[in-house]
Request: fold
Amino acid sequence: MKIGMLGFGSMGKTHTYCIKNLPFFFNTDISPEIAYVCTRNIENARLASEKYQIPNYTDNEDDIIYNPEIDIVDICTPNIYHYETAKKAILAGKGVYCEKPLAITSAQADELAGLAKQKGVCCGMVFNNRYLSPILRAKELALQGKIGRILSFNAKYYHSSALDVEKNAGWKQDSDICGGGVWFDLGSHVIDLIYYLCGEFKSVIGKGQIAYPQRKGIDGKAWQTNADEAFYVLATLKDGGTGTISVSKIAQGTNDDLTLEIYGEQGSIRFNLMEPNFLEYYSTETSDGTYGGNRGFTRIECVNRYPSPGGVFPGIKAPIGWLRGHIGSYFAFLDAFANNKMPCPSFEDGAYVQRVLESAYNSAKNGREELI
Reply:
């Protein structure tokens, strides 16, 4: 499988790492190769080609999309470019692996999902947290009925990257490039995890926050902030479960702080991305007794205990990290591509997440609860 990489910022490098290291982590005959890299600046593309041993480079994405030797187009460009690029790739019959969010509007995302289905093209999303071992264990518990009907949930994803107003803003802070602020960037991950583990949403009430209206722009000049720096949501699931979601890049003292709590009738789970090797699980089936008996949350050692064909390196007891979710996500997509299966998550999943994101923005704008 020959892959063309579009964009080579932090996510382009992450995807490159995953592709080149896939054979270490999975016993598989899947053999991907990055054949092309594309960036807007041809010199950056040349440097990436040399440093990461990618045979070809270009500053024109069409050199990749319409190249008959390319099987998969990997989209790591800013959000506003996803729609046009993905649409061209699908129509050209290429598989597509796209960073989140899928697009900048729900209409665009729905069109891409429908087009992928119509053309029978394998199109997958990068919701990498699904493939962390504790999240996969949580999904397993949910499918086994060990959590039961969801009553409530709380999810937070906090960074501190937008606190320095003297630092030039990045493209993810400019809505003209990203289409939305922290809600698109971090909120998409949270929405996907709740959707994956708890089911579909019924409604959302959203509220955005800009704490620093003026800061330095991408060019270093004074600039008016135009994208949310924090966003807060009260959400209701279709089965009645209700919870809160908050995402922020103005949370002092945080790093990559994604926390998730889900409380059900039969059990509860807690997860913290800063401790990615463990899932906390509470079961109502655990015996009570004097001094509490055995009742309480259990800290499950998920670590690298992935089922075959995973878990082979560096060993089942070895700790995992953020990159392991990306490696698992990329393998799942390539496996789906190789075996003509629906990828998980798919463009349909990406379109659903987009719908929830947009509904929350509409709620913040209109000041009322929005149905999904």
Observations:
- The chain is about 35% helix and 25% strand.
- The longest strand covers residues 150-158.
- The mean pLDDT is 97.
- The chain has two domains: 2-129, 130-321+353-366.
